[in-house]
Amino acid sequence: MKKIAYIELDTHAEIAGNFMELMNGSTDFQVDYYLSERIFKQIGKHHSNIYLSEYTALLNQLKDPNYDLIIIGTVHRYFNLFNAIAEKYNTAVIVHNLNFNTISKLQLFKNIFKKDFAYRLKLWLKEDLLSAPEVFKKAKNLLVLDQSLSDHQFQYLPVFYNRFHENFNSENFTIVIPGEVSQKRRNYKKVLEKLTERNSDRLLTIIFLGKARGKELRWLQNFEKKKLENISLQYFTKKVPQNRFDELMNKADVLWCPIQNEIEFFSNKEIYGKTKMSGNIGDAIKYGKFAFFPPNYPSNLEFIMNEKENSAQEIFDFKSVDSYDFQKEYNRKKVSAELEKVLTSLL
After folding, report:
1. Helix (H) or strand (E) holding 225
2. Contact yes or no for 80/125 (Cβ under 8 A)
3. β-strand 2-8 against 69-72: which pairing, if any?
4. In CA terms, which of 18, 133, 177, 324 is 20 to 30 Å from 140?
C-alpha cells in the first residue's frame, strides 16, 4: 500500500474534504492529512490519519512516515517550507492560479508595494515570498482541478463528485447565485440591471448565496426597495452555514454564475476559464445543477451554458431538464477510481 501525505495549511478546505471522502476506504493508498487549525475546523472531522499542523512543525512531522507522494493543496504562502518539501520529497502541487505559477521574482517584489503592504512584507521577510516560483519548478508534478486547464505541464486531478441529487419542486422558479457577494469576483451590478430589465410573468426567487457587505449590500437593499413584480429576493449579511448553503443549493432550479472575466491574484492578472478555475464548476457537479456562465467563459461541459451578452432572459425562462446524468458521470465510485489512477501515475 502506497503512502500519501496531503497538506492544506491555507485556504482550500473543501478540496481537502473532497479528497478525503474520495480516498476513504481505498485499498491501494493510505493517506495522512496535515491541516492547519482553521482548515481542521472547517472539515470538522477527527480521524487517526488527520493531524493538526502548522508550518513551523510540518517538516518534522513528515520525517518518519516515508511517504511515496506528498500533495500540497495550496501554495499561496509558506514558500520557504514548501520549497524544502519539494526539494526533499516526491511532491505534487495543486495550482489554483496558473499565471502566479510563472511570475518572476522581480514582479513579485514589485507587487509587494501595490496592495496589502504589511501582509505582503511579512510574506517576504518571514516566508520567503520571492522563492514562490521555485516551489513550482521543484515540484515533480503540477495539478489542476479543471480538465480544460490540463496540458503537458498541468495534470488533471479529479476531486469533484455529485453528492446531492434530490429534486425540489416549488411554486417559484429558483435561481441561486453562489459565492461571496463581491464585485471583484462576480458582476453583481450587471445581475441587478438584468433583473430590472426582465420581461416575464414567471415567479422568480433569486438567492444571493454568500455574505453581502459594503457597496454590494447597499445595491441589494436598494434593489429590494423597487419591489419588482414577480421577483422575490434573498440575501445574507453573515456567513451562510454549510447546512443552510446545502439546503438552498439543493432547491435551485439553475445556478447563475456571473463571474468576472479577469481578476487579480497577488496583483497579477488571472483569467477565469483560461488561467483559473471557477469554484462554481465544482458547485454545479456537487449539487447536480445546470449553470449559466458569462458569454466568454470557455467550457465544453454539457451542464455549463453561456448566457447572452445583453440579455439574461434565457436564464429566467430556463426549464429544468434531466438530459444530463450527474450521477452517471460524477458518482463517487467513478471519480474515486479516476483519482486513484492519477495518483498512481504520480508515484
Report:
1. helix 214-225
2. no
3. parallel
4. 18
pLDDT in tens, 159-182: 999 998 776 666 789 999 999 899
Write the pLDDT tens digit of every residue in 252-277: 999 999 999 999 999 999 999 999 99
Distance, CA of 275 to CA of 298 (rounded, Å): 11
The pTM (predicted TM-score) of the whole model is 0.92
For the sheet with 141-144, list strands across it. 50-52, 29-35, 2-8, 69-72, 91-94, 141-144, 154-156
| Residue in 58, 88, 91, 57 with CA at minimum distance from that of residue 73 | 91
Beta carbons within 10 angstroms of residue 69's beta carbon: 21
Q: What residue ranges in 36-131 does DSSP mark as E strands?
A: 50-52, 69-72, 91-94
Q: Which DSSP symbol is given to 324?
A: S
**Residue 144: φ, ψ to 5°:** -130, 155
DSSP three-state, residue 315: helix
Task: Locate 164 and state its grid cell.
Answer: 446531492
Residues 6+ apart with CB under 8 A from 38: 13
104, 134 in Cβ contact below 8 A?
no
Question: Could you give the CA distance from residue 206 to residue 174 in angstroms, rounded to a whole number?
Answer: 6
Measured distance CA(4)–CA(9) in Å, rounded: 16
